[in-house]
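In the lab's daily routine, each protein ends up as an entry in a very long ledger. A line of letters takes care of the sequence, but it says nothing directly about the fold. The fold becomes a row of whole numbers, each drawn from a learned catalogue of backbone shapes. The protein below has been through that process, and both of its lines are reproduced in full:
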Amino acid sequence: MSVPIRASTQQFLEIEDIIDDLAIMVDGSCALIMETGAVNFGLLSKDEQEAIIYSFAAFLNSLSFPVQICILSKRMDISDYLTYIAQSQVTQKSEKLKEKLASYHQFILSLVKDNQVLEKRFFIVIPFSTLELGIKSSGRSLVSKPKKLPYKKDYILERAKAALYPKRDHVIRQLSRLGLKAIQLNSQALVSFFYDIYNPESSEGERVPIDVAQPVVTGGRL
């Protein structure tokens, strides 16, 4: 499925099109992007931390091709979540749980008073260069984009898929050894990914959905 980029600033972007879950750049190069989770390294034991370090080193040493690790941070608005906690405190029948909710509510307030709440997303980008397409550097200007792609999109995609898919599968296997699951972004997710990059202010202050936080108290414990 093709999801062409339609925007007034398109002439300044390096993205020509997004087709079949791949981003095609204006010079004919492509990119495959995967999203992965993260490991809370600070909560691991010393042995677990060492195992993660060795596994990550093995992952890097296994690479025979370039990758880019991208981290997107977004400031979140937790006002709805705080309201939800306060409402839960009012409707809670157990006095003990009410006290726990009040304490938790105060803890969250003190935490966000001096610290921003950030959502972090982690991505791995695998590029397909014009050299792999058989194109030598043209020395084009950095402020101008090519008038047209060097080859038809179908041909570029065929070459890109043949080169990128084995690399993608290798990265997925290696990350699984770290306990991480990597998923390739589909075309629509790629549009959202690039939109957030070029329009970071549009997602600032996004509210935390309440359903991801339920339940606050289970079995008398926070």
User: Anything to note?
Assistant: The radius of gyration is 23 Å. Residues 10-73+120-200 form one domain. The first strand starts at residue 15 and ends at 19. The CA atoms of residues 74 and 141 lie 33 Å apart.
